[in-house]
Amino acid sequence: MNRNQVTCLAIGTLIALAVSVAQAQSAPSASAAPAAGAASMSAKEARAANRRLQKDVLHVLARTKGLSVSNITVRANDGAVTLEGAVPDQAQIELAGQAAANVPGVKSVKNALALSTF
Amino acid sequence: MRYVRRGICGAALLCVAGSAAAQSSVTLYGVVDVFGQYLNNGGNASFSERSGGNTGSMFGLKGTEDLGGGLKAIFDLENGFTANNGSFFADSTAMFYRQSWVGLSNEKYGQLTFGRQYQPSFWIVYPADPFRADELLAPAASGVLTPDRNTLATQNLTGRTSNSIFYRSPNMGGVQLYAMYGLSATVTQPVPQTTGNMLDVAASYTGYGLYAGLGYQYMHPGTATYPGLPGPLNLLGTEHFTAALAYRIGIVNLQALYVYSKPKDAAPHSLAALAGADHPYSLASFGATIQATSVDTVEVAIQERNARGVHDNTPGFEIGYDHNLSKRTTVYMRAGYMKNNGSATMSWSGVTVTGQGTSQTLAVIGMTHRF
């Protein structure tokens, strides 16, 4: 194997790893969502709704003035949103929590943000 | 009695209003970071204690003063140090090596600041590096800063610039623009060096889980004095092209980075030309940051540094794990491998390789605390 093949292989493995972790993570939230309320929703619809809400929250955070979003991860499960990752100061932790709470469809916010440099 | 009370209330309110109009604040902040390192440097194994594996140790003072009408005066003074031995970081003559600037900030028009500051190209890179451009253990930062005899006259993307003017636009629907002009600077550490003026412009977009950034920097020629060379080395005018991309899929943030540094042709018979130190180089990195749980983060990156026109390249990978004990305190691990091919001499920043073409293996465990 030459070097390029090794590099390709490594990239492939990395993508597979990332995708499998992402799927493993979304599986429990999907099964929990219908039980939490939306009885009429199928598991697939609930998953899609969670993904939509996650994107909406991310987008609102990205447009929030004075907030550094590059290290923020958002989880959404039937309107319950969790903020994870890190922002540069305490004021931004609170700012992110407030901004997320105001997104339509968000029922509760669990703020688990830590502190980072930028 | 009621009037007296009202009077006191009114006076108190007036005082509050007065202080609000000229409200100012100063914040002391910092990071203390120490780690234990195992390094296999071309077959020579060693253990050491170092500082700044997750984030560079620092303390700083930053402040704002409200000037009214949406205008603020802002400043930041930030010292870098090594917590393992209490020394200054990188340059023992610089009190505020990391940042020192003052300027104006306006909600509508952005901010304009003067001093020693991060470059636009740095702001572009930061969100696309799983190891957050840490000066010691991020492979991307090590790749840019590595001493390499084939690219010694090609100037590096240093991240910070002294004597600079920096404009940063407000966040306009996810778009941000950055521009900087720096005037010539002279330093004595790590080697005596004079850099020319520099121009840096960049733009980024953030939204819907996507991050994209582009940067362009031109550094005018300079000189540097390296031990072992017959005389001062002419540093060539160098263009840096930077592209950065990140995309979030659930808890995974995929990140990619590309930097190409291209020097102008060296004058014939100049030391840069005679020493063959005038090669361009590129750095490509692909990785991910995975938020495994609320308190656990996994970072992975593969990258290659490649000097053009000569057999000199270094593929490598690094994995990292961060566990937050609290909002402020984190324990972390890093492990990585780099393979130097041809005349490549790359390692993690601060490590001098034992010879050309040697492989490097690193494993560290450390803790970092923020205040």
List the helices and strands and how they pair.
The complex is a heterodimer of chains A (118) and B (371).
Chain A: H1 3-35, H2 43-62, E1 72-77, E2 80-87, H3 90-101, E3 108-111, E4 114-115
Helix pairs in contact in A: 1-2
Chain B: H1 2-21, E1 24-41, E2 44-51, E3 58-68, E4 71-82, E5 87-88, E6 99-106, E7 110-118, H2 120-125, H3 139-145, E8 160-168, E9 175-182, E10 185-187, E11 193-195, E12 198-207, E13 210-219, E14 222-224, E15 233-235, E16 238-249, E17 252-263, H4 271-274, E18 281-291, E19 296-307, E20 312-324, E21 329-339, E22 341-342, E23 359-370
In short:
The complex is a heterodimer of chains A (118) and B (371). Chain A is α/β, with parallel strands linked by helices. Chain A contains three helices and four strands.
Structure description:
The complex is a heterodimer of chains A (118) and B (371). Chain A has 118 residues and is an alpha/beta fold. Chain A has one domain (3-115): Histidine-containing Protein, Chain: A, CATH 3.30.1340.30. Chain A has 3 helices and 4 strands, in the order ααββαββ. In chain A, strands 1, 2, 3 and 4 form a 4-stranded mixed beta sheet that branches. In chain A, helix 1 (3-35) crosses helix 2. Chain B is mainly β and 371 residues long. Chain B has one domain: Porin (Beta Barrel), CATH 2.40.160. Chain B is built from 4 helices and 23 strands. Chain B has helices at 2-21, 120-125, 139-145, 271-274, and strands at 24-41, 44-51, 58-68, 71-82, 87-88, 99-106, 110-118, 160-168, 175-182, 185-187, 193-195, 198-207, 210-219, 222-224, 233-235, 238-249, 252-263, 281-291, 296-307, 312-324, 329-339, 341-342, 359-370. Chain B has a 16-stranded antiparallel beta barrel with strand order 1-3-4-6-7-8-9-12-13-16-17-18-19-20-21-23. A 4-stranded antiparallel beta sheet of chain B has the order 10-11-14-15, with no helix packed on it. Chain A binds chain B through residues 3, 6-7, 10-11, 14, 17-19, 21-22, 25-26, 51, 54-55, 58-59, 62-63, 65, 69-71, 73, 75, 82, 84-85, 89, 93, 112-118, and chain B through 27, 29, 31, 55, 107, 126-127, 132, 170-171, 173-174, 206-209, 211, 246, 248-254, 286-292, 294-295, 297, 300, 302, 304, 315, 317, 324, 326-328, 330, 341, 370.
